[in-house]
Amino acid sequence: MSDIAVKAVVSGRTAYQVVPDPDDPIILQIDGKLSRVLDISASGFTMPPAIVNAGRRYPFSLDLPTAKIPVAGYVDALPGKPDESIQCVFVNLSAEEADAIHHYVLIRQKDAIRSIRSSGSSSSGF
């Protein structure tokens, strides 16, 4: 059996974070502005700085590549260091919206594992 090492960034979020596929990005509209999602998890997402202010609640809408409908609601922007990416935590998602996000994260996790395995197979003979 082979081991897979996973590095996790310390943040205010408590779920496994995945990076969106650059060829199939997540479209984020937050507080009426378009932005990109740097990573996403079941509990929230990270976005570039200077779009929102930390410590506030914002309306958002996400178009996930794997979802049939947009995920919309509110997020709390967590306090952080100036000029760093902003961590946003979902607030009161419906069961359907939470399932859509879980589904997307699971697909991206599986893609990452496949990528690790395929890159390891060419160099280590697995």
Short description:
With 126 residues, this protein is of the alpha+beta class. 24% of the residues lie in helices and 27% in strands.
Question: Care to describe what's here?
Answer:
The chain is globular, with a radius of gyration of 16 Å. 24% of the residues lie in helices and 27% in strands. It has a seven-stranded antiparallel beta sheet with strand order 2-1-5-6-7-4-3. The model is unreliable at 4-9 and 122-126 (pLDDT under 50). The protein is an alpha+beta fold. Strand 5 (57-63) and strand 6 (71-77) form a beta hairpin.
Residues in helix, %: 10-25%
What is the H-and-E element order?
EEEEEEEH
Beta-strand portion reads 25-35%
Largest sheet: 7 strands, antiparallel
The geometry reads as globular
Number of strands: 7
How many H/I helices?
1
Q: Biggest sheet: strands side by side, in what order?
A: 2-1-5-6-7-4-3
Mean pLDDT: 83
Q: Write down the Rg.
A: 16 Å
pLDDT < 50 runs, ≥5 residues:
4-9, 122-126
Structural class: alpha+beta
In angstroms, what separates the terminal alpha carbons? 10 Å
Write the layout of secondary structure elements.
Layout: E1 27-30, E2 33-36, E3 39-40, E4 44-47, E5 57-63, E6 71-77, E7 86-91, H1 95-124
Antiparallel strand pairs: 1-2, 1-5, 3-4, 4-7, 5-6, 6-7
